[in-house]
Amino acid sequence: MPAIAAPVDLVRGEALYGDYCASCHGADLEGQPDWRSPGEGGTLPAPPHDATGHTWHHDDAMLFAYTRLGGAAALAAQGVEGFESGMPGFGDVMTDAEIRDVLDYIKSTWPERERAAQAARTAAAGG
Taking phi first (over 0 means left), then psi (-120 to 50 degrees means alpha), and beta for anything else, what does residue 85 get? Predict the structure, then answer.
């Protein structure tokens, strides 16, 4: 029997995005300028979470882990060491349900093509 999905609260997700994510990823999910080029310290700027970025290229489990654990820890858990990530973990300030709401809010802003591609990646990953 498939798991029952937890209820989604897009209003809460949008508010939490504003509280915790917008300062780096932009109020309109636009990301930081020149986000594909590492800064002076070798860390990439925050990418956009709109359809112009790469967030929709990742399955739900990866997006959740990246948000909950932070970039370096999430990648290390997958065996990727030494990646300089400026993404902090939010598992100590947001509940798992709140993180899911933020991610669902972000996904709700994408055009159908990106939502479908991301959903297919999630399904292929077993999510």
Answer: beta
Q: How many CB atoms are closer than 10 A to CB 119?
A: 15
Predicted TM-score (pTM) of this structure: 0.91
- Tokens describing residue 69: 């654990």
- Say what angle helices 112-124 and 60-69 make with each other, to 10 degrees: 90
pLDDT higher than threshold 80 for residue 40: yes
For residues 47 and 123, what is the distance between their CA atoms, to the nearest angstrom? 24
Kindly report the number of other CB atoms within 10 A of residue 9's CB atom: 17
What was the pLDDT predicted at 5? 61
**Cβ proximity of 34 and 123 under 8 Å:** no
Which CA distances in Å does 79 have to 35, 48, 73, 89? 24, 25, 10, 18
